[in-house]
Amino acid sequence: MQALHTAATGMAAQELSVQVISNNIANLRTTGFKKQTAEFQDLIYQHVARVGAQASTQGTILPVGIDIGGGVKTVGTPRSMTQGTLSQTGNDLDLAITGEGFFKILMPDGTFQYTRDGTFQMDNTGRIVNAQGNPVQPTITIPQNSQGLAINTQGQVSVTQPGSTTSTIIGQIGLTRFVNKAGLMPVGNNNFTDTPSSGTPQDGIATLEGYGTINQGSLEQANVDVVSEMSDLIAAQRAYEMNAKVISAADQMMQSTTALFR
């Protein structure tokens, strides 16, 4: 029976929906994480009687048709790039972006990746790096024994160097934005890479030309709403159960039909 296949596609779709929701909940405390949602479309229809077709020799037409759907398919798991709340940490190298933009990270193979996770550290040479030791762009090296590290809303990095009483700007952290942020591809470690769908990376300076601002001593939290995720999880579970019930009902109907031939 067609109902078996149709309900099976529904169960597979809801299983994927639960997987997406579970990933959102698992990353509830992941810095800069952006939640995903599963989107679906109906499959091709079997047109038993096409709407608008001629219904008689007198030229009348069918006002409605008979269309049997083939089920559901997954078309995407788009990522919501809405702003997450900021959490103050007090750490000098913890940075959060308010508004548009991503931090640009230089990878060991010479390519670039992009992140909203501003949990940065210093490596053994004084460079500002991410948790994997990859430098933030442009590369900034903090002089040894310097004090008073400050990063303003534009990303300018200032320190007071040994033998001096005044602050000196030693570099500027840039931001990168994209025409279609949802088109970025996640690659793990809170990083994204650009794709043809995201558009060309546009490097710029915070607070200027539509870019966001940089907040020192803060981190952006995940934009996951627990209440919403839990309600979506319950809805997905119930939809899965109903599709399973359809399979059970179709099986019982087939058993009844088979019994007629015994």
Automatic annotation (TrEMBL):
Keyword 4Fe-4S in annotation: no
Domain Flagellar hook protein FlgE/F/G-like D1: 96-159
InterPro entries per UniProt: Flag_bb_rod_N, Flagellar_basal_body_rod_CS, Flagellar_FlgE/F/G, Flg_bb/hook_C_dom, FlgE/F/G-like, FlgG_G_neg, LlgE_F_G-like_D1
Record bears the keyword Electron transport: no
Domain of life (superkingdom): Bacteria
All residue ranges annotated as the Flagellar basal body rod protein N-terminal domain in the record: 4-34
GO biological process entries: bacterial-type flagellum-dependent swarming motility
Cellular component GO terms held in the UniProt record: bacterial-type flagellum basal body, distal rod
Occurrences of domain Flagellar basal-body/hook protein C-terminal (ranges): 216-259
Subcellular location as annotated: Bacterial flagellum basal body
Main location, first listed in the record: other
Family of this protein: Belongs to the flagella basal body rod proteins family.
NCBIfam families: FlgEFG_subfam (TIGR03506), flgG_G_neg (TIGR02488)
Record note on quaternary structure: The basal body constitutes a major portion of the flagellar organelle and consists of four rings (L,P,S, and M) mounted on a central rod. The rod consists of about 26 subunits of FlgG in the distal portion, and FlgB, FlgC and FlgF are thought to build up the proximal portion of the rod with about 6 subunits each.
PANTHER family: FLAGELLAR BASAL-BODY ROD PROTEIN FLGG, FLAGELLAR PROTEIN
Name of the featured protein: Flagellar basal-body rod protein FlgG
Source organism: Bradyrhizobium erythrophlei
